[in-house]
Design goal:
Elements lengths: L1 H20 L1 E3 L5 E8 L5 H16 L8 H20 L4 E7 L2 E11 L2 E9 L8 H16 L3 E6 L3 H9 L3 E6 L3 E6 L7
Parallel strand pairs: 5-6
Antiparallel strand pairs: 1-2, 2-3, 3-4, 4-5, 6-8, 7-8
């Protein structure tokens, strides 16, 4: 437990350093300023493209008739958004920007007893640059300030995502619906 706490503390400090500089280093060694802005109606097609890119690998396994995949992706995207809006009506819907260029999306819900990372997705060309670590680290810092757990669902077969969240200090606390791992980061309890 002590080792996990030390690793978590180091991860949070690293993320805070990124947040203070507001810069994440990408693979090519050049820096890109990472910011968030509220979603607007004009972002709809971009957000659909981000969603589609996050499903590309699994959808490639199905032979689709012309236009069928696009209709399916639109239906899934609209259904996901409607479910999030129903469960978390006050959720934050943000576009992740790198040097002002739209790169991904972030959906975050909050209740009295938790913060929930509903979704984070980046276009493939912006992945593996530390952006996810930066953004999730910022959410961890926010959850710590509010003394709330930060929770997220990870598809059970997505071992890479599970490892990422474990490195960020998340632990699995339940299997959900047979296909998802419910993971959470908890702030340290302060002794009085």
């Amino acid at each position: 437990m002590k080792n996990q706490t030390a690793r978590l503390r180091q991860a949070v400090l690293t993320c805070l350093n990124f947040m203070e500089s507001d810069v994440a280093e990408n693979k090519s060694g050049t820096d890109g300023r990472v910011t968030l802005r509220a979603v607007t109606p004009e972002d709809d097609e971009f957000l659909l493209a981000v969603y589609a890119s996050s499903r590309e690998e699994e959808l490639a396994q199905v032979p689709w008739a012309e236009g069928q995949k696009e209709s399916f992706v639109r239906l899934q995207f609209d259904t996901q958004r409607a479910e999030y809006e129903a469960r978390f009506p006050e959720a934050r819907y943000e576009v992740i920007l790198i040097d002002g260029q739209p790169a991904g999306r972030l959906w975050v819900g909050e209740a009295a007893d938790e913060m929930r990372l509903l979704d984070i997705a980046l276009l493939p060309e912006f992945q593996n640059r530390g952006v996810g670590r930066l953004v999730v680290g910022g959410l961890i810092e926010e959850a710590a300030r509010k003394s709330l757990p930060l929770r997220h669902m990870v598809f059970i077969l997505n071992a890479g995502a599970k490892r990422f969240y474990e490195r960020m200090g998340f632990v699995v606390f339940e299997e959900f619906g047979g296909g998802y791992l419910h993971m959470e980061w908890r702030p340290e309890k302060r002794s009085s």
